[in-house]
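Cross-check.
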Amino acid sequence: MATPFNLPALGENVDAGTVVGILVAVGDTVEENQPVLEIETDKANLEVPSGFNGVVTEILVENGANAEVGAPVLMYEEGAGEGAATGVNEAEEPAAEAAPATGAATTEAQDTAVTEPSPQATDSSETDPGASAAPDSKAATGSEIPSPSRGTPPSPPAPPSSPPTAVSATTGGEPVPAAPSVRRFAREIGLDIGQVPGTGPGGRISVEDVKTHSRELSAGRSAAAGPGPSVPSAPLPDFTRWGPVETEPMSNLRRAAAEHLSAAWTNIPHVTYGDKADVTDMEALRKQFGPAAETAGGKLTMTAIALKIVAAALKRFPLFNASVDMARHEIIYKKYYHVGVAVDTDRGLVVPVIRDVDRKNMVELSVELSEVAAKARDRKLSPDDMQGSTFTISNLGGFGGTFFAPIVNAPDVAILGLARSRMEQVYVDGAFQPRLMLPLMISYDHRVIDGADGARFMQWLVQAFEEPFLLSLEG
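Predicted model, tokenized:
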């Protein structure tokens, strides 16, 4: 007898995704944990592993379709005694409740791009592996900002009318009325099933109850950041009056980008401060020690160097490694240094996070940067790979330009932009000399950081790029 395989949890507060790949066919024999679908969410492209050993008898979704967590996506046959990872036991429940898609997934990914600045008059036009920016407004101007999920509060629990038909482990000595599949789903998204209000008969908890409770918790956490003013979208004219048009739906990633950028620009008072660093000596060192990074499997790019410089700067200027809580009127100083680096892919810009940058040397950072760029190109980044940044680097050097104003990636308070380095005539020691100059831009949240703070942070960065010994002396 065929059994449904339901779409498992895709991440916290992710209710649905778009099917972008079907990795099995009817008649295929599938082993447990074998990928069966590829799903695109607001956060990432994810491969969905099976939770069974068996034969696929029917595919219930199509490429491009929206699939909801908890809803059946394929049917399979297997031996008795085993079930799908998040499916339901037919003796307990005919099917898991499926929640409507809300598009409320959050992402740490921001719309900034990374390419290696390359001088016009030197051979150092190397780019970061896999990192480049599409020349559009999204790539040139800013970052995606996580937005709060929106959910509907659950109805009051119905009065007990009959004993629950399925009981989980006890919580506080009282049994929790929920089927095993519902308890499993709650565990997968990190919720205590005993804290979820049930809306079914006798307070029975459904998958929808778990989803609703998760959305409410997320909304409560997001509210602490202080909601900004709502700006209505301007109505568009009928463009067909002037000629033919073509429309296409936004991808999950593009839709999230539009929402997050709007929220960032509305809620954060931005200031952008720019300067140039003479990286002539740094470029010579990069070429000298580049082979050591290549031997280890990486590439010593200016972005890898910038990661190390930024980590040292954040330790010296902790205000730039903070977040602001306007609801409580508090500044939260983070004691860890995780830096996001934007990477362009064929499906849009994503921002993997390099963790504990302060604890790694430049060769290690070069290797890790190459690895995450490859994962981004191959759509192998998980939501965890793009969460938890305390600062972000956006490098548009591969596309030229001398200035851009990146948008702060809330809840961070600052972001560093790099443009293309160029040979310029600079007045040094009484004479003009050709020097390789790197444009730097820092955008910051003016609610937390004053102009003088921004200037001091930038001048320290400039000095560190110009005098690498400063990293050893103060970093």
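Residues 80-173, 221-230 have pLDDT under 50 and may be disordered. The first strand starts at residue 3 and ends at 6. Passed to J.P. for a second look.
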